[in-house]
Amino acid sequence: MSPAELLDRVFTFEGTGQLLALDFVQSSLLAGALLALVAGALGPLVVARQVSFAVHGTSELTFTGAAAALLVSASAVSVGALVGAVTAALVFGLLGLRERERERDSVIGVVLAFGLGLGGLFLWLYEGRASNQFSLLFGQIVAVGRDDLWLLAAAVAAVLVVLAAAWRPLLFASVDADVARARGVPVRGLSVVFAVLVGVATGLAVPTVGALLVLALLITPAAAAAHLTANPVTAMLLATLIAEVAVVGGIVASLAPGAPISAYVTAIAFVMYLSCRVTGAVRARRGSSRRAVTT
């Protein structure tokens, strides 16, 4: 059954409960939960390393890889997105080692603009359905099948295993690269490893939330958690929880109108970010008041 036919079928049901009984909705919920898990684990390190712009560039160039794969076959989009994301992440990760911060951002901007222009050309050359083009940017709920789900689960498991193995030195290098380098930590190698992990996570997110708004998973939950705690483990757990609520809640909220998932995911994530920011500010103000009273 084609994506258009499945969407038509969605509108024949009444109530979210009946929609949740559909196989493709359950697959999308499981896929979203898996993506939120890996995004929550990587997000705090992205924020600590201050590479949000590089991650943004990686997500945009994922679109270029997916658009190139679309010219070959619609079934190859996930592979193309993954290849494009990992390639971009490696390039940006190496730039972070060799360029000063100002020059690095400039180079990322140049490469990003070229990649987006190339992706636009690929879409212009594509003669298939416009819905396939739209889903590359904003995601599509019917894009995840059972076979894709197994592949996604294996990739997420691999990312989490590698992250767990490199967690301590990677965290050390993320917090203070100079001290870590002086202590003998392989900062350069860890930067490459982390770039690959981010690239894989970004490429996996394309079928569900789209290339343009993948930052809602990798950045927003981690930025929200940073306002509540400075403990890296607690921040990772909070970021994962926020990402899960945003993704699963966004998918459920998008069912009845049949709208792109990304709009709901980003809205929920943004509201939770604002809530965490306000909560953190109130806690900091109370702490300052208590210290003033005791002194």
Textual characterization of the structure:
There is one protein chain. This protein has 295 residues and is mainly alpha-helical. The protein has one domain (3-294): ABC transporter involved in vitamin B12 uptake, BtuC. It is built from 15 helices and no strands. α7 crosses α11 and α13 packs across α14. It is globular, with a radius of gyration of 20 Å.
- The dominant shape is globular
Q: What structural class do you assign from the helix and strand content? A: mainly alpha
**CATH fold name:** ABC transporter involved in vitamin B12 uptake, BtuC
CATH class descriptor name: Mainly Alpha
Q: Helix amount, in percent?
A: over 70%
**What distance lies between the first and last C-alpha atoms, to the nearest angstrom?**
70 Å
Radius of gyration: 20 Å
> What does the largest sheet look like?
none
Q: Total number of β-strand segments? A: 0
CATH superfamily: ABC transporter involved in vitamin B12 uptake, BtuC
Number of helices: 15
Q: Please, how many domains?
A: 1
CATH-level-2 architecture: Orthogonal Bundle
Q: What is this structure's SSE topology?
A:
Layout (H helix, E strand, L loop, with lengths): L2 H8 L5 H4 L3 H27 L2 H21 L4 H22 L2 H25 L4 H9 L7 H20 L1 H9 L1 H6 L4 H23 L5 H4 L1 H7 L5 H23 L6 H34 L1
Write a brief caption for the model.
The protein has 295 residues and is mainly alpha-helical.
Key features?
295 residues, mainly alpha, ABC transporter involved in vitamin B12 uptake, BtuC, globular
